Predict the structure of UDP-glucose 6-dehydrogenase.
Amino acid sequence: MRIAMIGTGYVGLVSGACFSEFGVHVTCVDKDAGKIERLKNGEIPIYEPGLDDLVARNVAAGRLSFTMDLKEAMQGVDAVFIAVGTPSRRGDGHADLSYVYGAAEEIAQHLDHYTVVVTKSTVPVGTGREVEAIIRRVRPEAEFDVASNPEFLREGSAIGDFMRPDRVVIGATSDRAGEVMRRLYRPLYLIETPIVVTSLETAELTKYAANTFLAAKITFINEIADLCEKVGANVHDVARGIGLDGRIGKKFLHPGPGYGGSCFPKDTLALVRTAQQVGSPLRIIETVVDINDKRKKQMAERIIAACGGSVDGKTVAVLGVAFKPNTDDMRDSPSLDIVPALQAAGAHVRAFDPAAMHEAEKLLPGVEWAKDAYGTLEGADCVAILTEWNEFRALDLRRVKSMLKRPVMIDLRNIYNPEDMAKAGFTYTSIGRPSPA
Ligand code: NAD
């Protein structure tokens, strides 16, 4: 089979490479000349574990290629996927669909045989129908169907998530389109992946329902963590105690500084707007959005409190700025709220992130960037862990203590144990756990 993938970002590049691993001939298309140039030279423009090998192997096998020319990419394809960005629209929080609709117009111009036009981007209900209408308007005679195939991969484990998903959701408008989609995902039948075939609208909504549910789960445990602090309980024990109940489940019950990243903040907001628009408001999610926004800001106050109530003229060492480990993605990362708030309170911030500094430099002016974790520490008044990269989990605590001006650690990801930290002589603040007596 043969497909074109429009957009070579976190989703398009991973999905394209994974489909080629399934044996499909894939041409990835992007408007960003720099990205395509780098990909043609064998460079991977994003940080995603395992992606370099996967891309290299499939390029070498002749199944994966890159171009800026959509016409060429669409020759003889069974399906063309739209995997472009759908960021929040400035001002109102609705999903900005201009890239999706732009791609639909371009696809329309090059349709010359029956093709399934698939939205892989996260798009509000009704977008697939609008894509169909746009193509019909430009090319009334064209032979095509639209389908929705939302993507559930997570950055940092994207390849595994794509190759061994919990499920695949396909919203198809005809049996013919459904059949093309099933054939594309055939390798997943071998590992008995559930394939949920629905209407276009249901598939579109399923993606938002999944992300907003997960955002609510994170927000729930964050609020329970705050309550734990007040009443002397331990949030990890509470999480285990409830998570072992199969109806609740163990995952996504880890407290932290608030969710961030390229999906949850914009998708929660977009679904809230859709629901308001159709007169069926989602009050739970409205509250989740509000709590999470405030929480990210409160985290700077937590750091300031741990530094004795003021960071004016002090140096704060920051470990991790990406929104989670194993990615260089900075979109809506909690660090984008926390670091500027510390700077506004008069702190000098010295930071390190294993992968995201090239992106973060543009977004966090005034930060002094270090070469490694220890490089942030010399003479700092405290160290704050913002992202739980593995390399921050086993720091040499004696060395950390000897480098800091004061042995103060604020661990917003709970990667250290309060007892161990007390023994090591640190004043240690984490989330939702009692301090050792
Ligand atoms: P991204 O910003 O990393 O990549 C989008 C790419 O599309 C860019 O390289 C851009 O240049 C390109 N593009 C835009 N318009 C184009 C056009 N007309 N022709 C060719 N290329 C074009 O975005 P992403 O993170 O990969 O997300 C893509 C979609 O997938 C979004 O809707 C997002 O919500 C959804 N999604 C993302 C994730 C994730 O973890 N990042 C997970 C699941 C779903």
Q: What stands out?
A: The chain has a mean pLDDT of 97.
